[in-house]
């Protein structure tokens, strides 16, 4: 245990640019207007999203400069540490070298501020007075609440109803930062009212919450709509993670054979993997990039590549990506951040082109991995992060079987201090381990719009 | 905002020794045996506490070497960051320079592992197979649970009943680490059974939980009893905080005029202040050291200096210190870590000798400060830490009134992610702001043993 376990960078090593992997992918598939089916105009996107963010969304420039005031705020918790998981390696009796990059040291305990801070900054810059967004388990919502407070903006968050009720402390965190948090579906929007009319006890979904937030943004030009994952600019903001990790692996005099991240909307995975993917594309590095998604919401492993909406009320533009259909409702697994029917089009394209792999892991297996990780490394992973831990442990056990010493790098997206009810249920044997039925999947897939070009 | 806000150290800057302020205080008052009233023997202390820790407890050496394996584990989260609170300064419109040292980046989110790790290490070293301890709000219990797991020890935690029920997630955290957590008073001990016989619904107290843990330790020589605050060795372990902070203030080319810490048992305060206190004593530095305690539990501001027990069942030795009496029961404020009737004898002595000051702050004022701090600095402070934030803000406002630019350093002991129910109540106007009645105080003070030597 006397060997080095932590690789620390200086403030000067915080990246000065975000990496835009769209530059490496050739001509992107156009985004389609939900009303016309034709490619969407820049002006239409700017109706809800701040113009500098739309510019990034549509850009194929290789990188974007990080504004000074954003980088100044990053300095509060960045660079984040990268660790060698020596005790976990010993517990697994594996010859693998396991590393993890830990984003739980941010003030809200997850990677989300990496994108919330610049989104608040750009909205402030163009004169918006507030932000509106949706959140599932609340990691994104609390990050937007905090970033809005820093820039003197209001924040309104539509939180998936079932999480709103199950996780009152996430809501309390948003409120401590001064945000208004509404349970979705809410009576505040036409989209919410339509759902409530059919089912007053509807548990909500991320798709419905997106529809509500977008509706508010369309109705209030002073408010900027923000998104916590999936979109190209969000993936770009998160690449500070992978860029730092590359420097830290150099300090460790090592290079990952395998990089694994949890995959819901895809921004954690993109943030960690895209810098390595560029290395792979430009320098021919031999590296496996693995998306760990829940069996309960198997977007990459059982979805289709097609044009689809990101929201239930079909207000969002149509993007070409892996999708389970915008009407797909996954079983209520506790990794709320991974319960998305759709995924980042950039991740989707990387998988389609054979540049990334995907594995689906079960909820029980993830919590089992989370408990082992907590006991050996001291950090209780968020359920989302536990998906990556599980996939990494499986690779490490394969190394043991095959007598190979590979370097495995985990994107540990956050701590699980808000998710202990789920750990408690798991340890008490009360956590379900559901997967969607063939009927549920078929119902979801049948909601994918029928477009010739998809 | 382009000025530096974070002062980062390297791993080499993690201290190699713990500082023992007892060396600077001259002959210590003896600890008395609860059975005989005579000075306690080393052998008696060793019946429950690991011998190397007893050696530290009784030592007047100026420092103790930090064992290599302990320092290796410290490296996971140490050195912790020290920040300049620029946004808070601007919000307060104060000429004061406010700094905070943030211990919330540890895996459990507080400073407690600084002592839990060495206590687990020494117990393992002398052949104990497990640890037993008490915990109030659960910060110490979860730190012991994690440290025990790292060293392959069992952990049994007696958690104050009211917190056990109010904070199920702290308990779930301990269980995730593999510890057994019992609600106190419990039917597992004579001390617990005696309390339950009088009142089956007794909410418990830290004093009762201590009695239960000690009883288990006396009955099981294989188990080591550990304490999360107050004792000299615990204060020493926490001095890694102040030692690092001194280096970081040098990086900031500044030196604090005022250092403020929350004060319950006293280990946060001691950990931050004792290195500065030594500087004050040995180099004549002009510095004010302030203990911020709750009005609800005013040990330093309204207690007496006397010999008293630390526990309700009077199993602990008698120490000379400020005390409200071992039968004092404070109102149920949410800073569970500050609800101790007694205090570190070393802190007590520093206050008695005029080397430290104490202020008592109200619960509402603390949460108000916590909310302001969260919005400006992004970090939601634990309620304990919010006491120090409150006292620091009051000093900063005084600087504004007086047109003075003082440097104020806050010991921010942990994040409030487990305490959001309290923030929620505060924001909803439902948090009480109780102080003890004169009768409650008199009842407590009258339980102080009548010893001629006190």
From TrEMBL, chains A, B:
Top-level taxon of the source organism: Bacteria
Pfam families with a match to the protein in the record: PALP (PF00291)
Record carries keyword Lyase: yes
InterPro entries per UniProt: Trp_synth_b-like, Trp_synth_beta/beta-like, TrpB-like_PALP, TrpB-like_PALP_sf
Function text: The beta subunit is responsible for the synthesis of L-tryptophan from indole and L-serine.
UniProt protein name: tryptophan synthase
Catalytic reaction list: (1S,2R)-1-C-(indol-3-yl)glycerol 3-phosphate + L-serine = D-glyceraldehyde 3-phosphate + L-tryptophan + H2O
Domain Tryptophan synthase beta chain-like PALP: 76-414
PANTHER family per the UniProt record, alphabetical: TRYPTOPHAN SYNTHASE, TRYPTOPHAN SYNTHASE-RELATED
Subunit-level organization: Tetramer of two alpha and two beta chains.
Keywords: Amino-acid biosynthesis, Aromatic amino acid biosynthesis, Lyase, Pyridoxal phosphate, Tryptophan biosynthesis
């Amino acid at each position: 245990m006397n060997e080095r376990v932590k690789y620390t960078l200086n403030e000067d090593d915080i990246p000065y640019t975000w990496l835009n992997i769209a530059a490496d992918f050739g001509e992107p598939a156009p985004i389609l207007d939900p009303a016309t089916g034709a490619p969407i105009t820049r002006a239409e996107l700017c109706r809800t999203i701040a113009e500098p963010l739309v510019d990034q969304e549509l850009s194929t420039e290789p990188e974007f400069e990080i504004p000074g005031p954003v980088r100044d705020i990053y300095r509060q918790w960045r660079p984040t540490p990268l660790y060698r998981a020596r005790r976990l390696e010993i517990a697994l009796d594996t010859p693998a070298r396991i590393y993890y990059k830990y984003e739980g040291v941010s003030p809200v305990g997850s990677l989300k501020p990496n994108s919330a801070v610049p989104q608040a900054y750009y909205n402030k810059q163009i004169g918006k007075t507030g932000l509106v967004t949706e959140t599932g388990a609340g990691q994104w919502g609390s990050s937007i609440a905090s970033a809005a407070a820093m820039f003197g903006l209001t924040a309104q968050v539509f939180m998936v109803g079932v999480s709103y009720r199950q996780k009152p402390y996430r809501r309390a965190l948003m409120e401590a930062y001064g945000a208004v948090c509404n349970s979705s579906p809410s009576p505040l929007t036409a989209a919410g009212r339509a759902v409530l009319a059919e089912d007053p006890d509807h548990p909500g979904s991320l798709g419905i919450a997106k529809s509500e937030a977008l509706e508010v943004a369309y109705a209030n030009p002073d408010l900027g709509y923000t998104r916590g994952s999936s979109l190209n600019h969000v993936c770009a903001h998160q690449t500070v993670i992978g860029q730092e990790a590359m420097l830290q692996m150099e300090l460790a005099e090592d290079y990952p054979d395998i990089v694994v991240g949890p995959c819901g909307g895809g921004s954690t995975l993109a943030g960690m993997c895209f810098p390595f993917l560029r290395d792979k594309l430009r320098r021919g590095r031999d590296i496996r990039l693995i998306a760990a998604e829940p069996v309960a919401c198997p977007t990459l492993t059982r979805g289709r590549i097609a044009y689809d909406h990101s929201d239930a009320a079909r207000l969002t533009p149509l993007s070409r990506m892996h999708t389970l259909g915008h009407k797909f409702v996954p079983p209520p697994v506790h990794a709320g951040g991974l319960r998305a029917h759709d995924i980042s089009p950039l991740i989707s394209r990387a998988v389609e082109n054979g540049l990334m792999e995907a594995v689906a892991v079960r909820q029980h297996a993830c919590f089992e991995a989370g408990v082992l990780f907590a006991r050996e490394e001291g950090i209780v992973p968020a359920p989302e992060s536990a998906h990556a831990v599980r996939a990494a442990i499986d690779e490490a056990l394969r190394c043991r079987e095959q007598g190979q010493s590979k370097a495995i790098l985990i994107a540990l997206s956050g701590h699980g201090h808000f998710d202990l009810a789920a750990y408690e249920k798991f340890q008490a044997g009360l956590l379900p381990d559901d997967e969607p039925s063939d009927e549920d999947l078929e119902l979801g897939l049948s909601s994918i719009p029928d477009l010739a070009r998809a």
